[in-house]
Amino acid sequence: MKMHTYKSFNIVFTDKDKEFMESNFRLAETIAEFIGPHSEVVVHSFESLEHSVVKIVNGHHTGRKVGSPITDMGLKMLSTFEKTGDATPKSYFTRIKDGSLLKSTTCVLAGENGKPIGLFCINANLSYPFAEIIKTLMPDTIDTSIGAHENFSSSPSELIEKTLENAILKVESDEAVNLKSKNKAITKLLFENGIFELKEATNVVSERLGITRHAIYKYIREFRT
């Protein structure tokens, strides 16, 4: 791997570097929302090590905000990357000022031409009662229903079949849908779920519903308008 040398470790970003860096902001929000409020997610930029934090979610754990400097661990990882090219994510335990125990993981973010442009860090605060942490990972016990249904399929055809089966069951259980409009209602559900973005979908649906592909296309044109 080609090594890069940077004066004082502050890197001049290209437009593509900046775009890639900003693309991680939404990822940080997604991970923080998924794990819960007991974890801090941080994006560091090597464009300015003195003000490296460019995105932080739940920064109250470490008392940092956008514009805060890089950590000593971050500097160590950057130095290691420059010498060896090793960008393997690192997990470690550490304590912050108030004594709280964190489990952290950090990975190097690569930009244009593979140069390091920052760090993506997750810090889980383990000092909270374990029951509180687990509660954020579980559905509300008061509401026994699961809010979303998701098919985890190993192939496109399996995904289409499962989604089609669910649509058929939903339409057939709806007394407001008469027999004549059943196929159109099923097709509409599939369309709204984006299943026709998959190449095999039109053939599978037309065969299962016993209608032509032209009928499917006609329905889709109506839905789009």
TrEMBL record:
YheO-like domain location is 24-129
Write the protein's name. Transcriptional regulator
Q: State the PANTHER family in the record.
A: TRANSCRIPTIONAL REGULATOR DAUR
> What superkingdom heads the lineage?
Bacteria
Every copy of the Transcriptional regulator DauR-like HTH domain together lies at 164-221
